[in-house]
Amino acid sequence: MVIKDTPEEWPVTATTTPFTGKKTSVRTDEVVMPDGSTVTRDYQVHPGSVAILALDEADRVLVLRQYRHPVRQKLWEIPAGLLDIPGEHPLHAAERELYEEAHVKAADWRVLTDVYTTPGGCDEAVRIFLARELSEAEGERFEVSEEEADMELARVPLADLVRGALAGELHNNCLVVGVLALAAARHGAGPDALRPADAPWPARPFAS
């Protein structure tokens, strides 16, 4: 038995978009079940995201602390952002986000893992990269606003983040998945065996 997610699409008899926002929308589908009945499914339509676990030479991860209004908390997170340009190469988006949020660049990029954040209610797909060989980016710092203007930046040992995730002290999806995935990779074939940065991503196809 092969444990692997596979594409499948059940028939949709009708679809509407009752809400359209700045970046995302809500879709309502009438979906035919295997027994022939039809049910309504509401879900958020999302362009997709990239996230970056940036690891420095001292085995510290670059993290940001940002206010997240829906959960009314300041969360420690790894740099991340939307795939704003349809078909954009996710590596290019990741490089941009790392520069904008941390003014850092990386010489070595790997795909750490790909996830659906909340597949029961949203189609958001996230590619989490491992970025190494970090250095300060050239040029002016990117001008931030709104919640990002209040962000804090830190470099935290990977082991501390793993402990915090398992202790229930850290809750950001990409941070938790990223640090645990890197820890698992180190116990396996090692980070150098991870997929290349341009590995195919069926959830969000891109131009090479």
Biggest sheet details? 5 strands, mixed
What are the low-pLDDT stretches, counting only 5+ consecutive residues below 50?
none
Overall SS class: alpha+beta
Strand order of the largest sheet: 7-4-9-8-11
SS element count, helices: 3
C-alpha end-to-end distance: 33 Å
Number of strands: 11
Order of helices and strands: EEEEEEEHEEEHHE
- Alpha carbon gyration radius: 19 Å
Percentage of residues in strands: 35-45%
What is the helical fraction, as a range of percent? 10-25%
Mean pLDDT: 95
**Shape assignment:** globular
Q: Can you describe what's shown?
A:
The chain is an alpha+beta fold and 208 residues long. 18% of the residues lie in helices and 39% in strands. The chain has helices at 90-102, 158-166, 173-187; strands at 12-20, 25-32, 38-45, 49-54, 60-68, 73-77, 80-82, 104-116, 125-136, 152-157, 195-196. The strands form 3 sheets. Strands 7-4-9-8-11 form a 5-stranded mixed sheet, with helices on both faces. A 3-stranded antiparallel sheet has the order 1-2-3, with no helix packed on it. Strands 6-5-10 form a 3-stranded antiparallel sheet. A hairpin with an 8-residue loop joins strand 8 (104-116) and strand 9. Helix 2 crosses helix 3 (173-187). It is globular.
